[in-house]
């Protein structure tokens, strides 16, 4: 049976130097705010806007364009942070996609252990797909697919960090 959930994976997306920049900016950054929400009445998690950082809005966007061969514009880019007990809520990033809006999700934490959990779940109709948390990997998916970032287990002492790019494919417009 062919999957209805279209998710492209990009292992080792950044060089070691680029990945270290993202780690320093996010995982070790000091501009986190406890104000993130997946859904209007959902559970809160840690949030960090990255819209003012040229590395994300220019450099990473250019890498995304090259690797996907799509002409994207950024709607917003930010980091999500979760600890044990801070699971997200199933949500869509946009309600009606029309194959224009994409989400590019980058997994930050180095040396992530599989027993720490932190997967991202996707659901479309009756199909469910689990994307494990793998350091320096990125995925691209349609923004109207229901998804949720799961919290790390209690054995993880770090903040689970992803960087989310909300993108519009302007070559299709």
How far apart are the termini? 32 Å
Number of strands: 10
Q: Looking across the biggest beta sheet, what order are the strands in?
A: 1-8-5-10-4-3-2
Cα-atom radius of gyration: 15 Å
Q: Characterize the main sheet.
A: 7 strands, antiparallel
What low-confidence regions span 5 or more consecutive residues with pLDDT below 50? none
What is the helical fraction, as a range of percent?
Answer: 10-25%
What is the count of distinct domains?
1
Class of secondary structure makeup: alpha+beta
Shape: globular
CATH level 1 class label: Mainly Beta
Oligomeric assembly: single chain
Order of helices and strands: EHEEHEEEEEEE
Query: If you consult CATH, what is the topology?
Result: Jelly Rolls
Portion in strands:
35-45%
Number of helices: 2
Q: What is the fourth-level CATH superfamily?
A: q2cbj1_9rhob like domain
Give structural notes:
With 173 residues, the chain is an alpha+beta fold. The protein has a single domain, classed as Jelly Rolls, CATH 2.60.120. The protein has 2 helices and 10 strands. It has helices at residues 16-27, 54-68, and strands at 7-10, 33-37, 44-49, 72-82, 101-107, 120-124, 127-131, 138-142, 146-149, 160-169. The strands form 2 sheets. Strands 1-8-5-10-4-3-2 form a 7-stranded antiparallel beta sheet, covered by helices on one side. β2 (33-37) and β3 form a beta hairpin. It is globular and about 40 Å long.
